[in-house]
Amino acid sequence: MNYIWDLMIRAANAGMDKRDITFVPARSYSPYMELSLQNLNASAAETVVEVNPYYRFEHIFSAWLDPNVEEYDELRYQLFDLIMHQLADIDIVQGMSRQEYYIQFILRDMEEGAYGVRVSERIGMFNQLERDGIAANLLGLYQTGEALYWLKNTMRKVFKRSTIYAICEEKDELILYVGQEETVESRAKVELILDLFLPVRFRTELYWSRHFGILGVEDTMRLDTMALY
């Protein structure tokens, strides 16, 4: 981890708010590294991060952080933090494709209520990778119209052991095996995914930690571990 964009991405993936990270000019630093970390092999984001401002941004900070200037230290350091956050945001978006921009727009719309109050209230239950995956799959749904495929893909991203069975011969029904114990949070997550991806004509049956029995599939036919359909 050497660059400010790398630090910010790791912080987001860990669920940290970028406002909790403070950038300060490093007092002692390597001329070959942008971040001055106590542990060079650190993989987790720190909350107070020392930065070598001359590694990439000397043209911005050379006069600003002149050691001969002793006035307004607190103001200069606060502005340094704000500017480094802005530079980190620019760093991140410079590597984004059009597809990634669309994904971020969809994610922002979900958070701001464009998909309904229930979605905006519950999207924060997912970690950053799950949120990005949901937004990416919504974009895939808009591009292809294959709702069932993206429903299955999204469930598998969030609930690794989940399986979806479609019964379309006599009725439009989906049987969802989640593969974990039911909790208030897990039910809220499933309901959000169904709100976003489930076609209107389908009804659903949910099975949590107990799979219903399937003839010929031995793992689903064990006594005391299977559910009845």
Describe this structure in words.
- With 229 residues, the chain is α/β, with parallel strands linked by helices.
- It contains eight helices and eight strands.
- A three-stranded mixed beta sheet has the order 1-3-2. Strands 4-5-6 form a three-stranded mixed beta sheet, with helices on one face. Strands 7-8 form a two-stranded parallel ribbon.
- A hairpin with a 5-residue loop joins strand 4 and strand 5.
- Residues 215-223 have low confidence and may be disordered.
Summarize the structure.
By secondary structure, the chain is an alpha/beta fold. The chain has 8 helices and 8 strands; from the N terminus they run αβββααααααββαβββ.
Question: Which sheet architecture does the biggest sheet show?
Answer: 3 strands, mixed
| Basic shape | elongated
What is the helix fraction of residues, given as a range?
40-55%
Structural class: alpha/beta
Contiguous helical run count? 8
Which spans of ≥5 residues are poorly predicted at pLDDT below 50? 215-223
How are strands sequenced across the largest beta sheet? Answer: 1-3-2
Order of helices and strands: HEEEHHHHHHEEHEEE
Number of strands: 8
Mean pLDDT across residues = 84
Strand composition percent: 5-15%
Distance between the termini: 51 Å
